[in-house]
TrEMBL record:
Species per Swiss-Prot/TrEMBL record: Apis mellifera (Honeybee)
Family matches, as PANTHER family: UDP-GLUCOSE GLYCOPROTEIN:GLUCOSYLTRANSFERASE (PTHR11226), UDP-GLUCOSE:GLYCOPROTEIN GLUCOSYLTRANSFERASE (PTHR11226:SF0)
TM helices/strands, residue ranges: 21-40
Domain (UGGT thioredoxin-like) ranges: 84-261, 336-467, 477-724
Protein's name according to its UniProt entry: UDP-glucose:glycoprotein glucosyltransferase isoform X2
Length: 1255
């Protein structure tokens, strides 16, 4: 029997197995053959034993030979162009981005730690042990991931390049101090230089490390050094002392003098081996079949022969050995190193078959199986076609696909990754950006956990979008005010009688830029002008032009005049203009009134306009006018001054002229003769779509007042205040820390100081019976010993009397430090806050800050009746010091400055002459409510978040509301979060729960076709994130119904490790891409899939990477690439007309070598790119026509310093760096074209004629 099986096997083989079978195949065959013999009768015959031994020896020989031949590989790595950087410094940079105080604690801890005499593994272990004190488990895992990517190596290199550009290497010192451009390695010389009164201010950037006790002064000292080097600790301690005592800015930059002769090994890229199109064989089959419903055996029979073994014949001969033969066939298919030919019909369900195999694997191995199938698909296809597909899986998958298509616009074969609802397109995103998003998410999640929320509640809060497009939202002021002197009224004036009053005219198509003539006050322009100022003249001229040409725009004026009622037009020019304008408007009409203002402009000169000039202008317009009556005390035309005063005050403007279009302020830099008309037109065009939508949706009807509708919109405020409404004025405090146990408050971090202060705070509020929360918490930062400080507190107290949702407290900021012997108003108010009950405290403080009482106290006569307050005054000196510390280090305010903190948002410092009134407090509340509080309260307070039993355990407090608001509002969502709906996840989804449910956990949802290019990249990313983070993973398999061709024709590896690996001797074992299980006879082409801003080049490879054939190599193919350049990209436009300056040349270099690379601005979106590397670079316009015609107007981007046409840019990251450049032509070059020669002697024919002179 055994002889017959083996002989039949040899008889029916077509290709010698001794030349084809790989080692693991033979090993499997040996197992099966032994099993065959064992199942037969006992082998008593010696001959039979010898035959078995013979065949066994032959198979072992083949096993050894095959093992030698097929163990071939392809490996690839990418190194940076710069030398190795210490892991300890990279860890310090990571900690700095988490919290600057961690960085300085790290420097203090490792200042004397010698990095050079220990291994890299020892350094790594030391920094991880330090980070464990400050970071959570998840934060520490992300730090390890960041270190494995080496993303902070670029920043260390940047600092070192800054030093080398300044020729510091010639000093031959490990630590060098830069004081105003003077470099020294001596502590003694440092002390001498530091006592100078002034020195040159160096360039500093946001990536610089400013010592936390440093003041915002122009005296900056920069230390270029490395921790652990000789004298570093001495320099560090000396500069810390100077920063704390002398108010000097101490900045630390890393400088590596002695470096290891090895480049940094990078990761975070993909490597693809693509099969040449001639290498894949597909057998055409005109009878296209569908294997749906076929059983496993029928499918198996399609593979008639594997590695010379005809399994169809063997199964026919030995039907009772089907199971053993199936095992052998599966083993051969999975371990074969060659690609067999498949018939076209066998492609159809490959995607489903791959999904079936994934779903049948153990849960903890499912992602590994997904990765293996997608990354080695050409080798896996042969075994996949034998897999029977579960119909329940297909049914569930199709129902899910229908939902994905309608709700998320995700089609079959599309790949999507959602992290806490944030969508990531794996085709576009790189792992560096992915890591930054994970860090940002984790910071918020950890903070919410510290507040006391569970993972379920955290997910609900993360879904809140509190940004409401604040950066794009235009706030308006209510213009329904009698202070406005309207020049015209489109709805009432006869000049517009022929226009249609139907609002549906808004929906009528027009040419771009054309205004619709509708007899409605749809657009209302209010000009707030000082009529005595020459800057107002262009605006008045345009207003007259708009009026005379019957533009569909209502125009009105608010005059900034002398608001003293005792002053008349006979003595004050501004009052005279107000009276005269009203006279002409009422007696002659608006046209004459406008003409009066324009004629008056002829008298505006360096000395201004006086009353006599106004009288002349009145006489010129109306010779019969009674000037003394018009301008006198009894004039009926002296109206509106008080109303105008109130309107101007509520507008918040301090400089004039200003303009409001439908209440929205126009930009101040557009209020000139050149830009004003265009600004008005563009604003009208931008506001029109909102009105069109309102008409289309029926929100406004023909019977409605248009102005009322516009003024009732959420963006319209009762008054305007830039400090409150402008996004760039928003500064948020980090209120989430821990209350320190030690009493050395000088070492407390800013967030710990905030936590201590919040714990000690006592509040003033209106008592009420209900237990509804105080939604708004105001901290009034003020000096109550000053009149303006007391006035600020009085306005706040007046405000809360009618607002039960608000509570206030006080942070005192005296102009001079308080001593133990004096008692002032600040101390008395603080003592009252901590001792008196709420019912008495407001009355007590109101009395204390009355001016007559305050004067008595400031004169040293203190008479306090409350005994509790007297006792408290004896024991609050420490609290006063902490208030001062908080104001200095956290709020960054000067002594005596005033400010307001609203739910963690800092507003201030207020200017000396700036008032913050009751109306401003009301505006602040309304703005806060409309922008984020409404959403937060609906989710948090009204029970939608805590509807479960946890409500009692986790009751929301006023402090929690303050913390949540400051946290979520300070991290506005720049991207949308998506909810991923689905029909079912039982048969077609991988579900892996978080390992530690008690810790914060990410929610990762992926939608992927297991045999798509997206799966090749998604698999390793999910695997690494699963190893690094505490996360719930759900992967929906999104298969294509029928494939008409091989879905994947490439092998893929993604270099992305959860943490660094080390050799036994402590050296870093750099990451690389390694391919095994490759076909040896196929022709492969290698591609590198690096981030878009990486320019990589191969620097070492013995073989042609475009034509890899493993049959032709001895062991394998190894290649090494280098990151040659990081691209500095940007877009350039002309500031005035907005067109790209096509052909403009931009150069990039250093101070020592100004021209290293150059580029040309493209006509397509003004795009340009320059080759750079980590360091400080100088961006200039190329000498020649570019520099002769153009100047830089603005250059925007991260860490950009502009000084006219010299622009400095630092490259500090491996991520993409994009600039936004605006240029403008020089005044005398406006008519010149960059690409044409303006010299008349230039040109082709002139060149020929010039050349002919030599003949």
């Amino acid at each position: 029997m055994p002889m017959r099986i083996v002989n039949n096997y040899i008889k029916y083989r077509r290709i010698s197995i001794f030349h084809q079978l790989p080692a693991r195949v033979l090993h499997g065959l040996v197992i099966i053959l032994v099993q065959f013999f064992y199942n037969m009768s006992f082998m008593e015959n010696l001959k039979m034993r010898l035959i078995i031994c013979l065949y066994f020896l032959i198979l072992c020989t083949i096993y050894i030979e095959a093992e030698k031949r097929v163990n071939k590989y392809v490996t690839t790595l990418i190194d940076a162009k710069w030398k190795e950087t210490p892991l300890a410094l990279e860890a310090a940079e990571y900690l700095n981005d988490e919290n600057p105080s961690y960085f300085w604690k790290f420097i203090d801890n490792f200042a004397n730690y010698n990095l050079r005499n220990v291994t890299e593994k020892d350094n790594y272990d030391a920094v991880i042990a330090f980070a464990e004190k400050y970071l959570s488990h998840s934060e520490l895992a992300l730090m390890k991931l960041a270190l494995s990517l080496r993303i902070y190596s670029a920043r260390i290199e940047m600092f070192t390049q800054m030093a080398e550009n300044k020729n510091m290497s010639f000093l031959d010192c490990y630590n060098i101090v830069d004081i105003g451009g003077v470099f020294t390695c001596s502590l003694e010389e440092l002390e001498k230089l530091a006592i100078q009164d002034t020195w040159i201010r160096p360039d500093i950037y946001s990536v610089d490390h400013r010592y936390h006790a440093s003041q915002q002064s122009d005296k900056i000292i920069i230390l270029y050094g490395q921790i652990g080097t000789p004298k570093f600790l001495d320099f560090h301690n000396k500069l810390k002392d100077l920063a704390e005592t002398n108010g000097i800015n101490y900045i630390l930059r890393h400088y590596l003098k002695d470096r290891i002769d090895k480049n940094v090994r990078l990761s975070g890229y993909g490597v693809e081996l693509q099969m040449k199109s001639t290498e894949y064989k597909a057998t055409d089959d005109s009878d296209i079949k569908d294997n749906t419903g076929k059983d496993s055996e029928t499918t198996t029979d399609s593979m008639e022969e594997i590695d010379g073994i005809n399994f169809v014949t063997l199964k026919n001969l030995y039907p009772n050995k089907q199971l053993e033969l199936d095992k052998l066939q599966t083993h051969l298919l999975e371990t074969s190193h060659e690609i067999g030919a498949l018939k076209v019909w066998q492609f159809q369900e490959l995607s489903y078959q791959a999904a079936e195999r994934i779903m049948n694997s153990p849960t903890n191995e499912a992602i590994n199986v997904l990765t293996d199938i997608s990354q080695n698909f050409p080798m896996q296809a042969k075994s996949l076609i034998r897999t029977k597909v579960n119909n329940e899986m297909k049914k569930e998958m199709k129902l899910n696909q229908a939902i994905f298509s309608t709700s998320l616009n995700i089609q079959p074969t599309d790949t999507a990754l959602f992290i806490n609802g944030l969508f990531f397109d794996l085709e576009a995103v790189d792992v560096l950006s992915l890591l930054e998003s994970l860090r940002s998410e984790l910071r918020i999640m950890e903070s919410l956990r510290k507040i006391g929320f569970s993972n379920k509640e955290i997910s609900s809060l993360l879904a809140l979008d509190l940004s409401t497009n604040m950066d794009k939202q235009e706030f308006a002021m209510d213009i329904r005010d009698s202070a406005i002197i309207w020049v015209n009224d489109i709805e009432q004036d006869s000049a517009y009688a022929r226009w249609s009053s139907s609002l549906t005219e808004l929906l009528r198509p027009t040419f771009p830029g054309m205004l619709r003539n509708i007899r409605r006050n749809l657009y209302n322009l209010v000009l707030i002008i000082d009529p005595l100022s020459g800057e107002s003249s262009p605006l008045i001229t345009l207003a007259q032009s708009l009026y005379l040409h019957s533009a569909p725009l209502r125009v009105g004026f608010v005059f900034v005049t002398n608001y003293d009622s005792s002053v008349t037009g006979l003595t004050d020019a501004s009052v005279a203009i107000n009276n005269a304008y009203h006279y002409f408007a009422e007696t002659k009409g608006s046209e004459h009134a406008l003409q009066f203002l324009i004629d008056l402009g002829n008298y505006i000169g360096p000395e201004g306009v006086d009353v006599e000039d106004i009288k002349k202008t009145i006489k010129m317009q109306d010779s019969s006018a009674n000037i003394n009556y018009i301008l006198g005390e009894e004039s009926e035309y002296d109206v509106g001054r008080h109303l105008a005063s109130d309107f101007v005050k509520r507008s918040g403007f301090r400089k004039f002229p200003q303009a409001l279009l439908n209440g929205v302020p126009l930009s101040s830099d557009q209020l000139n003769a050149n830009s004003f008309e265009e600004a008005v037109l563009s604003t009208i065009i931008s506001q029109t779509p909102a009105l069109q939508k309102a008409v289309y949706r029926g929100e406004i009807t023909e019977g409605d007042d248009v102005v009322d509708y516009i003024m009732n919109q959420p963006n319209v405020m009762p008054c305007l205040n830039e400090r409150i409404l402008k996004p760039e004025k928003h500064t948020w405090l980090n209120l989430i820390g821990t209350i320190p146990n030690d009493e050395d408050y000088n070492k407390w971090s800013p967030q710990d100081l905030s936590s201590w202060l919040m714990n000690k705070m006592r509040y003033i509020y209106v008592p009420r019976r209900t237990t509804v929360h105080h939604l708004y918490t105001f901290w009034i930062v003020t000096n109550l010993n000053e009149l303006k400080g007391r006035q600020l507190l009085r306005e706040a107290l007046e405000y809360i009397e009618s607002n039960a949702d608000v509570r206030i407290s006080i942070i005192v900021n005296p102009l001079v430090d308080t001593n133990d012997n004096t008692i002032d108003i600040n101390q008395i108010v603080l003592a009252a806050l901590h001792t008196l009950p709420v019912e008495k405290i407001m009355r007590f403080i109101r009395n204390i800050i009355k001016e007559d009482v305050a004067t008595v106290i400031l004169n040293g006569k203190v008479d306090i009746e409350e005994e509790a307050v007297k006792e408290r005054l004896k024991n609050q000196i420490d609290e006063l010091y902490i208030h001062r510390r908080y104001i200095k280090t956290v709020l960054n305010l000067e002594k005596g400055a005033r400010a307001i903190v609203c739910n963690g948002r800092l507003i201030g410092p207020l200017d000396d002459d700036e008032e913050f009134t009751n109306e401003d407090f009301s505006l602040l509340e309304r703005f806060t409510q409309s922008t984020y509080d409404d959403k937060l309260l609906k989710k948090l307070i009204k029970g939608q978040l805590l509807e479960n039993d946890e409500y009692e355990k986790n009751e929301i407090t006023d402090d929690m509301i303050m913390k949540i608001t400051s946290l979520l509002a300070s991290h506005p969502q720049t991207r949308s979060r998506f909810h991923v709906p689905f029909h079912g996840d039982d048969y077609s989804a991988i579900k892996i729960p978080a390992i530690n449910p008690d810790e914060v956990s990410f929610n990762l949802i992926a939608i992927v076709d297991p045999v798509s290019r997206g799966a090749q990249k998604l698999g390793p990313i999910l695997k690494t994130l699963q190893q690094s983070l505490n996360c719930n993973i759900k992967v929906f398999l999104n298969c294509l119904d029928k494939n008409s061709d091989m879905p994947l024709k490439s092998f893929y590896r993604f270099v992305f490790e959860p943490q660094l690996q080390f050799f036994p001797d402590g050296r870093i074992n750099g990451a690389m891409a390694k391919f095994t299980k490759l076909p040896t006879s196929s022709l492969l082409t290698q591609y590198i899939h690096a981030p878009e801003n990486w320019l990589v080049e191969v620097i070492r490879s013995v073989y042609d990477l475009d034509n890899i054939k493993l049959d032709n190599v001895a062991i394998g193919v190894h290649s090494e690439f280098e990151l040659e350049y990081l691209l500095l990209e940007g877009h350039c436009f002309e500031a005035v007309i907005g067109n790209p300056p096509r052909g403009l040349q931009i150069t990039l270099g250093t101070e020592k070598q100004p021209l290293m690379v150059d580029t040309i601005v493209m006509a397509n979106l003004g795009y340009f790119q320059l080759k750079a590397n980590p360091g400080e670079w100088v961006l200039r316009l190329r000498q020649g026509r570019s520099a002769e015609i153009y100047d830089f107007t603005t250059v925007g981007g991260q860490d950009v310093l502009q000084n006219d046409n010299d622009v400095k840019v630092v490259i500090s990251s491996l991520r993409s760096h994009v600039l936004k450049v605006k240029v403008s032509k020089k005044p005398d070059k406006v008519g010149m074209d960059l690409l044409s020669e303006d010299d008349k002697s230039s040109g082709l024919w002139n060149s020929i004629s010039s050349f002919s002179k030599f003949w």
